[in-house]
Amino acid sequence: MQDEDYKNYLKNHNHPKVRLMHFIGQIITIVFFAYTAYNRYWGLMFLTPLVVYPFAVAGHVFFGKKGNKPSFYKMSFVRAKLCDIKMFIDILKGNLRIW
After folding, report:
1. What is d(CA 33, CA 19) in angstroms, rounded to the nearest whole number?
2. In this structure, what DSSP letter does residue 65 have?
3. Cα distance between residue 52 and residue 36, in whole Å
4. Which of 6, 23, 28, 61 has the most neighbouring CB atoms within 10 Å?
5. What are the structural domain ranges in the chain?
């Protein structure tokens, strides 16, 4: 992932509530992964990267500016996911607000 990708990603996620929805989705993704690993539901683990998206899309629809679409429309799924993880870490570090 390039820094330019992340800068563009953050422009699309400038509203704190959009970031909050992504953050909630990432927490649920981590819980989902832990649950499937603990219970050895190996067949469900491939869904782990997709768990965040209902929350992320809802954040864009309800709190984003008109025309604000999730980044996976503009960049590859993998690059968008890497940016999403970096944003999650930046929120945990206190570098980005979600309130």
Report:
1. 21
2. P
3. 15
4. 23
5. 3-93
Residues 28 and 22: their CA atoms lie apart, in Å, by 10
Cα–Cα distance measured from residue 95 to residue 47, given in angstroms and rounded to the nearest whole number: 29
For residue 42, which amino acid is it? W
Cβ neighbour number for residue 34 with a 10 Å cutoff = 11
Segment 44-75, tens digit of pLDDT: 999 998 898 899 889 988 988 877 777 766 78
Classify 40 in phi/psi space as left (phi over 0), alpha (psi -120 to 50) or beta: left
pTM score above 0.70: yes
Whole-number Å distance between alpha carbons of 77 and 81: 6
Chain-centroid distance of CA 79 in Å reads: 11
The Cα–Cα gap between 12 and 64 comes to 8
Note the pLDDT of residue 68: 73
